[in-house]
Amino acid sequence: MRQDNAKLRASKSKEDRAVRLEHMRQHNAKLRASKSKEDRAVRLEHMRQHNAKLRASQLKEDRAVRLEQMRQHNAKLRASQSKEDRAVRLEHMRQHNAKLRASQSKEDKLFA
């Protein structure tokens, strides 16, 4: 399985990339549906690594993907009635605002 994944990851073929993407979708769906703390922890770690990779990328496409994922995540938190989700969103906003305040960028300061 690891060798197959490495081969698919290294391939430039659209078909191979589509196969790998479908594998990942199924894997994530399985982890998302699981009630196991270990499975949920694995998925959370996958997401952290994926986000770090997108954050570090200079590609416009990667940055656009991350921005869209954040929009969807925020919309989900905003729509939720759960106190935990609202607390998470509030903490996200605090961190985001602190980052903007600390920034030296004129554009960032306009939004702080």
UniProtKB/TrEMBL annotation:
What superkingdom heads the lineage?
Eukaryota
Q: What is this protein called?
A: (apollo) hypothetical protein
Q: Which organism is it from?
A: Parnassius apollo (Apollo butterfly)
